[in-house]
Structure formats: structure tokens, C-alpha cells
């Protein structure tokens, strides 16, 4: 597609626009110098901005009350994922009330498009997207998030509790 | 022939046809759980409701034979309502297990709910809890909560396998399917109950949790587990084959297959395969590509037949290849190399003619019949026992083996392999690795398995069945025909059809090299 723009007489008066822009910059700079604490920008990385809890950042695998991973390895998130970046291996759990659980759950975070479809697909609130957004790493190995990282990384402080509890559901007769 | 009308569509059906089959014949969907064409009629699920003529009450389609001039309707509002609330009853005590249930994706409850149900449940009571994860032996896991008590599995063990293990215990909403005192369900056809169970109450241990069904594609093929040649469907994805299910064929297997046949896919997967050819010279192994190895084998055979004469070459063939492959091998050996020492390796001669009365036969090769036919055609009459003497007396110095792809059904495999290794040259076609082949000059060439090639198998009663290629698992493997073509010095590369034309139609090919 090519866009042809016809010459406009206004374009000849661009100098006015430039000087008014420069004036605005200068004005804001002077104001900011004398009102440092009202400045809207932060000095990253010394200061960090916290997003609200609804922000769709890094994934969190929630846990049950006993601390094990809530995920039942139903693969709905992997099926729904448009980037195809979730890999799950299911296995038989020794506890018959659990039956199925993931022995490995990996997200290739570099391929993830942060759409939140996994969160939406999950029937048991096992995966959520949290407010974390800084994801530095040194090589590709740091971007394959496994259960250890997704559920138990240090800043989750032992794991986020899932809202769906099997025992409660059982007693409620579901 | 009887005339009847299904939802206004006129059809002709055979005398004695059930209304449910007539509806299917007329291409309409009918909700049902308990009816299975291979079993007797139970009429317990009450879901196949139809309106006949202007009878005020609905009837079940699976237990009503068609009569002349019958007007059947299953699209009536009354019928739809009955099916919908019938479904609600089925789901009252059904657990919310779909995320961990292996049947999800092919579950009749899910399918029929989406087709005929779509109601909001109106049940306020708590669900009745039953036993879950009941271990029924080495093959099956039972979940009594998921069972909808259609009794298909019970009828199967009563009527088809005739082993009567399963039954329905207790009454009312406490009814449970199961075996007496949870005895294992170990008959040779037990896994058919997993197939016919419309829900996830019976699941196969082998397949359990390994894949979600919607990740699998399926393709019809022939079971190579024995000489019955059951028609089956294999389920696969890019990682390999995952399970096998029977496909209806009235003349061969009906609706069923045996449990041994369900394990046949296992040797096809990569972990159990020979991935590239191996040339072992005096203990020194060297990998090479299958094509190279076949060409090498061809040159070697040509030279050896020239030096030692064609009598010094022995060919051992197993009944696990297709007719087409036999044809090319025999043509090459008999007509080109003049080798007449072709032996039929029979794996279990004592149990060869066994038959369990239903499907399973003692001959664990899919194409013994085809091999015998071709040996007759080339008028070859040899006896495998002569080979041993010939090897020992050094009259046979070179052996070519078209070995079994399913080595597990060859109890004498290692013993034979070490016998063949006594000859100074050994060329072995095999789908899996052959560690016992340790002759002075050994060449092992990887072959394709039944799932990776098309061809004809002839079953025990002489029925020719063609099977089609399902997928490719080992890229480096060759079919026996391809190997033979390469051995005879020809090329197997298919010539591109009209390369010029392809260039013109494909813009990108045409532009390549211009960037
Ligand atoms: S959808 Fe939820 S329960 Fe299912 S595999 Fe994904 S995270 Fe686990
Ligand atoms: S039987 Fe069907 S409806 Fe029931 S849990 Fe399994 S998949 Fe879901
Ligand atoms: S286990 Fe399956 S086949 Fe058997 S009665 Fe229950 S639902 Fe029917
Ligand atoms: S009876 Fe034979 S051909 Fe049929 S499924 Fe069993 S092993 Fe395969
Ligand atoms: S299919 Fe007719 S009653 Fe079940």
C-alpha cells in the first residue's frame, strides 16, 4: 500500500510548530526542576512501578491447601493457548482423590503472547496471570518456566492459594 | 423390504430392522447410550425416544421393530423435550470430572448434551458419591461414579467374551457397575468394554493420561497382531502411535478386536525402532543411511553370487510383510540373482493353528497366507530345518533376513539370530534393533512398519485386505520394496511431475534466487 499525501499550505508554517513544541518542553523542564516530587515518571530501576493485581503479567500456578500444585493436568490451557507454548505431562497420582496431576508443566515464556487465554480456560483456577512484569534472564534456559518457578518462586512466598478446593466441592455435593 | 417414513423422509428398510437403525439409515441423529449394534437390546437408557404415528406416548427406538408404513419422528418437540430431561436424569449424579477424565472429547455425555441437552440443571440435591479409581487388573480402571448404567459392558462380557465378569450391583441411585469383589477383568477382549463405554467409567490403563483425545488423529488400517487381520483405527500424533481401536468389518472382526492387538502399535514408536542402518564388520559398528546400506547390500550380493554361486545365498522371510514387498523381493532374488534357497521362518509352529473361538489366532503374523501364496507362485519348496545344516556345513555363506517387525511374537528370535550369525555375511531387514546379529559382516537395514507403508495383507482365510500408510515415524526407514529397488541398482527417487509447470505456478519457487 502506498499513501500519497498532497502538499498542504500549512506545511510551510512548520517553524511555528517547532518553536511552540520547544517552548512546552522548556516550560515543563523548569516546572519539574522546581517540583521534583510531583514528577509522573519514575527512576527505573532504582524505583519500580507496581501494577494492579489484574495486570496480565507472569503466570502463577496456584496451590492447594496442602501446598501441592492445584493443576489437574487437563490440558485445557495448552489447548487454548494460541502461541502453543504450554507443555504438560500428566501422570497418575497415588492419592485416588486427586487421580491426575502434572509431573511437568512448562511455559515457554518467550513464545507467550500474554493473552490470558490459559487463565480463562482453566476449570479449577490453577493458573493465573499476576502483576509481575520484569522477566530478566541470561539465556533461553531462564525462559522455560517450570512448576518450581511458576508455583513456588520466592516472591510468591510459598504459593498462591487456589479458589477451588476439591474437598469443599465434595462436601457441597458437587 | 418395508417402507417407512423418518421425519418425513421415505426410506426402505429390511424386515426386522429396529427403528433406531432406520433413523440412522435416514441420516438423522438419535440420542442413545445403551444400544450397540453388536450387542443385544437392553432399552435401559430411555434416551432414544421417538414418536410413532400419532401415538400419544413416546416409544424407545432401540426396542421397536419397523413396521410397514410406520411414521417415525424424532424431531418432534415432545421428543426433544423428553430427550433433554432424560439427559438431565443421567447427569444428576454424574461427577464434575471432565478435566481429569480420559473420555473427555469423545464422551457421549458431552456430545449428547451439546446436541440435545443444553438445559440448566434443576437438581437441588447433593450428588450421590460412589467409588472412584477402582483397579480392575492390569488393563482397566473403573470409576463407578461416572457410569451411567447403560449395561453395555455387562452385556459385552455376557454375550461376546462370554466371561460374565461384570454386573450391576445394588439398586436405584446406589446402583454400581463392577466385578464381584473387584476381581480383575482380565479376559482377552476386556478392552472392548472401554471402547463401548459411552462415558469415562472404564478407562484403559495403557492409554490413561498419556494424551488428550483431541490431540490425536486417526486412520484406518489392519491389525498385524495375528492372521485374523482385524480392521482397526490407530490414533496418532507427531510423537507416534498411542492407541488402537477396532473398526467395523462384518466379515472379519465385527465390532471387536482382541487385547493383544491393542499392543501391536508399541513396536512402531521411535523408542523401539532402528533409526539408521548399521554395518558391523568384525565387531566394528558403523552407522550409515538405509539407502546407502541397501545399495551396499545389493553390490555385495551381486559379487557374492558371482564368486560363490547363487546356492551360497540363503534368504529367510517372515510372514510380516505385504504382498507387494514379497513380490519385489522374490522377483529380485529368484529372477535376478537366481537364488532359490528361500526359507519361511515360522515363529511358533506348534501353536500356529490355535484359535480362541472369537478372533485371536495362534499365527502371530499378518501375512503368512500371502507368503505361502508367493512361494507357491515361484515354486519354492524349502524347509527351515535344512538351513541349519547348510549354515553349519558352510554351503550357505550369505544370509538375507526379512525379519519380523514385531519381534515380541518371535520367541525363537535370539536363537535364530545367533544361528544366522554363523554365516559369514548377514543382511538383516528389521524395524527394531537386532543386537543378536553378530556375524563377521553384518548389515542391518531399518524397515518401515505396517503403519508407515501401504500394502496388501492376506488373512487366514485368504481375504486380501489393503492397508494404507498412516504416518511416518522413522524417516530413515525403507520399505522392503524400496530396499530391493535400491539393491538392484535402481533409484527410488520419484521424478517430479512437470517441473517447469510447477515453477510457473509457484511464484516463490520462480522468484527464488532473485532476492
Ligand atoms: S487448564 Fe488449569 S488445570 Fe488444566 S492443565 Fe491448565 S492449569 Fe492445569
Ligand atoms: S464421562 Fe464424560 S461427562 Fe463424565 S467426566 Fe468423563 S468426560 Fe466428563
Ligand atoms: S461402565 Fe460404561 S458401559 Fe458399563 S454400564 Fe457403566 S456406562 Fe455403561
Ligand atoms: S485377533 Fe489378531 S488381528 Fe485381531 S486384533 Fe487381535 S491380534 Fe489383531
Ligand atoms: S438406546 Fe434405546 S433405551 Fe437406550
Name a few traits of the molecule.
heterodimer; A: 174 residues; alpha+beta; Alpha-Beta Plaits; 3-stranded antiparallel β-sheet; 5 helices; 5 strands; 14% strand; B: 515 residues; Ubiquitin-like (UB roll); Rossmann fold; 5-stranded mixed β-sheet; 22 strands; 25% helix; disordered C terminus
Helix content estimate of chain B: 10-25%
Radius of gyration of chain B: 28 Å
The quaternary state of the protein chains shown equals: heterodimer
The largest β sheet of chain A comes out as: 3 strands, antiparallel
- Helical content of chain A, roughly? 10-25%
Enumerate the strands of the largest sheet of chain A in spatial order, edge to edge or round the barrel: 2-3-5
> Uncertain regions of chain A: pLDDT < 50 for 5+ in a row?
none
Largest interface: A-B, 20 and 17 residues
- Report the span from N to C terminus of chain B: 70 Å
Kindly provide the name of the CATH class of the domain at 59-172 in chain A: Alpha Beta
| Helix and strand composition category of chain A | alpha+beta
Order of helices and strands of chain A: HEHEEHEEHH
Silhouette of chain B:
elongated
In whole angstroms, how far apart are the ends of chain A?
Answer: 58 Å
Describe this structure in words.
The complex is a heterodimer of chains A (174) and B (515). Chain A is α+β, with helices and mostly antiparallel strands and 174 residues long. Chain A has a domain at 59-172: Alpha-Beta Plaits (2-Layer Sandwich), CATH 3.30.70. In chain A, 25% of the residues lie in helices and 14% in strands. Chain A contains five helices and five strands. Chain A has a three-stranded antiparallel sheet. In chain A, β2 and β3 form a beta hairpin. Chain B is α+β, with helices and mostly antiparallel strands. Chain B has helices at 19-25, 77-91, 108-117, 152-160, 191-196, 290-308, 323-336, 368-377, 384-392, 413-420, 480-487, 499-505, 507-511; strands at residues 2-6, 9-13, 49-52, 59-60, 70-73, 134-136, 140-142, 166-169, 176-179, 202-204, 217-222, 231-237, 240-246, 277-281, 284-288, 313-317, 342-344, 398-402, 425-430, 441-446, 455-458, 464-467. Chain B has a seven-stranded mixed sheet, with helices on one face. A five-stranded mixed sheet of chain B has the order 2-1-5-3-4, sandwiched between helices. In chain B, strands 6-7-10 form a three-stranded antiparallel sheet. In chain B, α2 packs antiparallel against α3, α6 crosses α11 (480-487) and α7 (323-336) packs parallel to α11 (480-487). The model of chain B is unreliable at 509-515 (pLDDT under 50). The complex binds iron/sulfur cluster (4 copies) and FE2/S2 (inorganic) cluster (FES). Residues 147-153, 177, 196-199, 201-202 of chain B line the site of one iron/sulfur cluster.
Amino acid at each position: 500500500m502506498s499513501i500519497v499525501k498532497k502538499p498542504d499550505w500549512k506545511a510551510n508554517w512548520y517553524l511555528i510548530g517547532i518553536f511552540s513544541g520547544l517552548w512546552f518542553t522548556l516550560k515543563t523542564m523548569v516546572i519539574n526542576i522546581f517540583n521534583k516530587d510531583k514528577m509522573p515518571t519514575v527512576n527505573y530501576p532504582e524505583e519500580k512501578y507496581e501494577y494492579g493485581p489484574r495486570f496480565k503479567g507472569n503466570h502463577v500456578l496456584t496451590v492447594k491447601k496442602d501446598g501441592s500444585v492445584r493443576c489437574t493436568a487437563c490440558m485445557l490451557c495448552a489447548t487454548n493457548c494460541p502461541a502453543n507454548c504450554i507443555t504438560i505431562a500428566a501422570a497418575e497420582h497415588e492419592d485416588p482423590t486427586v487421580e491426575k496431576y502434572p509431573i511437568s508443566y512448562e511455559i515457554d515464556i518467550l513464545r507467550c503472547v500474554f493473552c490470558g487465554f490459559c487463565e480463562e480456560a482453566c476449570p479449577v483456577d490453577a493458573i493465573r496471570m499476576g502483576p509481575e512484569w520484569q522477566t530478566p534472564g541470561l539465556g533461553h534456559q531462564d525462559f522455560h518456566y517450570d512448576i518450581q518457578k511458576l508455583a513456588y518462586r520466592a516472591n510468591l512466598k510459598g504459593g498462591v492459594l487456589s479458589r477451588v478446593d476439591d474437598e469443599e466441592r465434595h462436601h457441597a455435593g458437587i | 423390504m418395508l417402507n417407512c417414513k423418518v421425519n418425513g423422509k421415505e426410506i426402505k428398510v429390511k424386515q426386522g430392522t429396529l427403528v433406531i437403525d432406520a433413523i440412522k439409515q435416514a441420516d438423522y441423529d438419535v440420542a442413545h447410550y445403551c444400544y450397540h449394534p453388536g450387542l443385544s437390546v437392553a432399552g435401559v437408557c430411555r434416551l432414544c425416544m421417538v414418536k410413532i404415528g400419532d401415538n400419544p406416548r413416546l416409544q424407545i427406538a432401540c426396542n421397536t421393530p419397523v413396521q410397514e408404513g410406520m411414521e417415525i419422528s424424532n424431531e418432534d418437540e415432545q421428543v426433544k423435550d423428553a430427550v433433554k430431561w432424560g439427559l438431565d436424569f443421567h447427569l444428576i449424579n454424574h461427577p464434575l470430572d471432565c478435566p481429569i477424565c480420559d473420555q473427555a472429547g469423545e464422551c457421549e455425555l458431552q456430545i449428547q448434551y451439546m446436541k440435545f441437552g443444553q438445559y440448566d440443571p434443576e437438581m437441588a440435591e447433593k450428588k450421590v458419591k460412589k467409588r472412584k479409581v477402582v483397579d480392575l487388573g492390569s488393563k482397566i480402571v473403573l470409576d463407578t461414579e461416572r457410569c451411567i448404567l447403560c449395561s453395555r459392558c455387562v452385556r459385552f462380557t455376557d454375550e461376546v467374551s462370554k466371561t460374565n465378569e461384570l454386573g450391576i450391583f445394588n439398586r436405584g441411585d446406589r446402583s454400581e457397575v463392577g466385578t464381584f469383589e473387584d476381581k480383575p477383568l482380565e479376559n482377552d477382549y476386556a478392552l472392548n468394554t472401554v471402547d463401548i463405554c459411552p462415558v469415562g467409567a472404564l478407562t484403559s490403563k495403557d492409554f490413561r493420561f498419556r494424551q488428550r483425545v483431541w490431540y490425536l488423529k486417526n486412520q484406518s488400517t489392519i491389525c498385524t497382531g495375528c492372521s485374523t487381520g482385524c480392521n482397526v483405527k490407530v490414533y496418532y500424533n507427531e510423537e507416534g502411535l498411542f492407541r488402537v481401536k477396532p473398526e467395523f468389518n462384518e466379515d472379519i472382526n465385527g465390532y471387536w478386536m482382541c487385547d493383544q492387538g491393542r499392543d501391536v502399535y508399541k513396536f512402531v514408536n521411535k523408542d523401539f525402532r532402528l533409526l539408521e542402518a548399521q554395518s558391523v564388520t568384525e565387531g566394528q559398528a558403523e552407522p550409515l543411511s538405509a539407502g546407502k546400506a541397501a545399495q551396499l547390500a545389493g553390490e555385495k550380493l551381486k559379487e557374492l553370487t558371482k564368486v560363490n554361486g547363487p546356492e551360497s545365498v540363503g534368504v529367510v522371510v517372515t510372514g510380516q510383510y505385504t504382498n507387494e514387498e514379497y513380490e519385489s523381493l522374490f522377483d529380485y532374488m529368484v529372477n535376478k540373482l537366481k537364488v532359490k534357497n528361500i526359507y519361511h521362518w515360522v515363529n511358533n509352529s506348534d501353536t500356529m493353528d490355535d484359535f480362541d473361538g472369537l478372533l485371536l489366532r495362534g499365527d502371530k503374523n499378518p501375512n503368512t497366507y500371502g507368503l505361502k501364496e508367493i512361494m507357491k507362485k515361484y515354486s519354492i519348496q524349502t524347509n527351515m530345518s535344512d538351513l541349519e545344516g547348510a549354515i553349519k556345513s558352510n554351503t550357505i555363506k550369505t544370509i538375507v533376513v526379512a525379519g519380523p517387525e514385531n519381534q515380541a511374537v518371535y520367541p525363537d528370535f535370539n536363537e535364530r539370530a545367533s544361528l544366522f550369525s554363523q554365516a559369514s555375511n548377514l543382511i538383516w531387514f528389521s524395524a527394531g534393533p537386532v543386537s543378536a546379529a553378530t556375524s563377521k559382516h553384518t548389515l542391518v537395514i531399518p524397515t518401515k512398519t505396517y503403519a508407515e507403508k501401504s500394502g496388501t495383507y492376506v488373512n487366514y482365510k485368504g481375504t486380501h485386505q489393503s492397508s494404507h500408510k498412516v504416518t511416518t515415524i522413522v524417516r530413515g526407514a525403507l520399505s522392503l520394496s524400496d530396499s530391493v529397488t535400491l539393491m538392484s541398482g535402481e533409484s527410488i527417487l520419484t521424478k517430479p511431475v512437470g517441473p517447469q509447470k510447477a515453477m510457473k505456478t509457484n511464484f516463490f519457487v520462480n522468484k527464488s534466487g532473485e532476492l
